[in-house]
Design goal:
Length: 218
Amino acid sequence: MTTVLIVDDQALQRLGFSMLLEQHPDLTVIGEATHGAEAVRKAAELKPDVVLMDVRMPGMDGIEATRRIIESGGRSRILVLTTFDLDEYAYDALRAGASGFLLKDALPDELVAGIRAVAAGDSVIAPGLTRKLIDAFTSHLPGHTLEQQRQLARLTNREREVLTAIATGLTNTQIAERLSLAESTVKSHVSSILTKIGVRDRVQAVIFAYDTGLVRPA
């Protein structure tokens, strides 16, 4: 059972999400929040698997709420909802630690699949959109830190190849084909990469690859 906290300042939006998710036996809504501060409090109290987070809300917005939930060290993963696919707020939310984002007008099946993917530790940004998003906001990249450079140095040459492939939007299957590896081997490499560079999912790995200059904008 995947537990979900819905965060949105619009009552009808929260009701719609709740009605949709309750149709699926493997998903359950355990709480709602109307603004960021309430989201942080309820995430700590309820410990949901996934927080469905609106970005633009009065008071504390979804970006700051995401940052605080992630920094708390809890297990909740954040799926951000935004109106525009290249919304700068969405990029900032990803940098704050969100596991991905979807548009608010996503199809019901896409939303459900996204929640399940985030709960399983994956990202929910389509590969092409990941590249498009990060390319659009490269001016925001602060450059790598000394710790990031040390983390990069821990990777083997093969792991660097895999991380580069992830950052260019390839799936595990496509990486396996490109590098002539078994898909299970690619999965093992991905798991090792995430551990060595200290990130939670593929989206954060992509940002790391850009931050450190391993991959540069097209």
